Amino acid sequence: MTSEQGIDEQAVFHNRIGAHNLAALWVGRRGVDLTRPKSPAVAARWHYDGLREELAEAGHIVTAQEAFRRVLVLENPAFPGEMRATNTLYAGLQLVLPGEIAPCHRHSQTAIRFVIEGTEAYTSVDGERTWLHPGDFVITPNWAWHDHANEGNAPVVWLDVLDTPLVDFLDTVFRENYPAPQQQISRPDGDANARYGAGLLPVGYQANSLNSPVFSYPFAQTRAALEALRKAGRWDDCHGLKMQYINPATGDFATPTMAAFLQLLPAGFDGALYRTTESIIYSVVEGRGRTVIGDRTIEWGPRDLFVIPGWHGHRHAADEDAVLFSVSDQPMQTKLGLWRDERPGDPTA
Ligand code: GTQ
């Protein structure tokens, strides 16, 4: 028997056993390169202007109460209809108009918010409100009650990133509505930041969640930190100055499934090539520049959004001082011992 006949025979066998819900590993995997990740997701960008127009239109056709969450979902072009920005992360832009409430509920997904516009709205998380300002980073831990309200005269828009694709994949989705549109407030504004976010912890503090007990990281503080650090002039070849939001009680990522970062690229920065197994959603805060991802060049400016799939080589460049916020699935990977990254000069690069 020639080897080609053998392969035909194996293919016939493989197809036949398919009817019995069986597969031959050596046939199904033939020719598939498993030496490195090949994310089916693609690099993508959304200019804020176009997105903002559609969001305004959404504001005309549906109320926040009707929609429950009035969100335009950023779908990876490789996964139309799946409401995924990357393999593991959901992202969307949420609009709450003056006087509106997004009703209270809770779910097993964790949410991260990054405020883009608006100054007189708040979100309530497990009994405490936090007021939202552009650049603020806010956590809604899994199974925490949350509702949003806009008490000002201008729209509020923020980026939502949730671990929904992962929580779906694990068959662990639960969801519950609160018996009223808004939850009862049981703590004064600023309580969590005073209690956990001022370099202090209550004596005898015991965590009751894997999430950071601080649920709001004001931009006024994080932006000032970047500005102070630039004076040291120590720039990473790939990341410029990239800082990670942490759980101050543990030093761990701010949430168990998603990491968040704030990054400064000085004007003229021309970054080195970098790749990492995590997938990343970027929201541009300030400045203009571009990110080359494989054979794509993504030009970006204030409020634009873009995604970098896992293990896609990329490099950032900034024409002006640029501040970038990003969220990734790094914690899901590091906790399983799977995370890797690579830069020029690494032994394996
Ligand atoms: O604000 O609670 O974009 O539950 C998707 C699901 C936002 C929210 C989203 C949600 C929310």
Write a structural description.
- The mean pLDDT is 96.
- The protein has a six-stranded antiparallel sheet with strand order 1-19-16-21-14-13. Strands 2-3-10-5-8-12 form a six-stranded antiparallel sheet.
- Strand 17 (289-293) and strand 18 form a beta hairpin.
- The chain has a single domain (44-202, 210-342), classed as Jelly Rolls (Sandwich).
- It contains eight helices and 22 strands.
- It is globular, with a radius of gyration of 22 Å.
- It is an alpha+beta fold and 349 residues long.
- 2,5-dihydroxybenzoic acid is lined by residues 69, 71, 92, 94, 107, 111, 146, 160, 162.
> How much helicity do the residues have?
10-25%
Q: What's the helix-strand series?
A: HHEHHEEEEEEEEEHEHEHEEEEEEEEEHE
If you compute it from the alpha carbons, what radius of gyration comes out, rounded to the nearest whole angstrom? 22 Å
Shape: globular
> How many structural domains?
1
Question: Which terms would index this structure?
Answer:
22 strands; alpha+beta; 6-stranded antiparallel beta sheet; 30% strand; Jelly Rolls; binds 2,5-dihydroxybenzoic acid; single chain; globular
